[in-house]
Write a structure and sequence with these properties.
The protein is an all-alpha fold and 193 residues long. Helices cover 74% and strands 0% of the residues. It has helices at 10-22, 26-39, 44-56, 60-73, 78-97, 101-114, 122-135, 138-150, 155-168, 173-182, 189-192. The longest helix has 20 residues, at 78-97. The chain starts with 9 loop residues before the first helix and ends with a helix.
Length: 193
């Protein structure tokens, strides 16, 4: 009721959104976030909340619309950029699982375009490399795997992740065998994957 007394007070609206989230009332919180966006269309907190809500319901395209709006409102916000990259990675996985490699590839390309030099995105490059191996483009897959290894995540975790992604995609058996052979000297973790 007190919100009616402060219809133009943005902090009051945001506090109500926080309370609804904390109380576990997602539908009411979504309505409140929409109300905030009706009054303040570039409210990043509300855009991120609605994007995450859509993401959790596996509505990736709708989530991306909210995340893109948040990115437009705050283009240098690293947290917003990471939300978009994560959503694009999951969207690509869903599209790959449905057999649409070209749309999955586009999602990975969009995610890569959002990265900044010096950031580690080995998960992105491992997943994308697995897609390329599955599509039969070994040269591109090798280049992406090299990018994953070039990050500061360390070779062992990247090799393990690549083995998992190669099995999940699935990449051709000779690719998985080669990855296991190439990196089997790294405590045998690839062989156990």
């Amino acid at each position: 009721n007190s919100i009616k007394h402060y219809p133009r007070d943005r902090p009051v609206h945001q506090k109500l959104l926080e309370v609804l989230i904390d109380q576990g009332s997602p539908k009411l919180a979504e309505r409140q976030a929409e109300e905030i966006l009706n009054r303040w269309p570039a409210d990043v907190q509300s855009l991120l909340f609605l994007g995450r809500s859509c993401f959790e319901r596996d509505a990736m395209r709708k989530a991306l619309k909210y995340f893109d709006r948040a990115r437009q409102a705050e283009p240098f916000n690293a947290k917003v950029r990471e939300e978009v990259i994560t959503c694009l990675r999951f969207s690509a996985r869903r599209r790959l699982d449905k057999g649409n490699m070209e749309l999955a590839r586009r999602d990975y390309e969009q995610a890569e375009a959002l990265t900044t030099p010096g950031e580690t995105h080995s998960a992105l490059y491992c997943k994308w490399a697995a897609l390329e191996w599955r599509a039969g483009d070994a040269e591109r897959a090798e280049a992406l795997f090299a990018k994953a290894l070039a990050g500061d995540s360390g070779a062992l975790p990247v090799c393990y992740q690549m083995a998992v992604e190669a099995a999940r995609a699935p990449a051709p058996p000779d690719v998985r065998e080669r990855i296991e052979e190439q990196h089997s000297g790294r405590d045998g973790i690839i062989a156990d994957a």
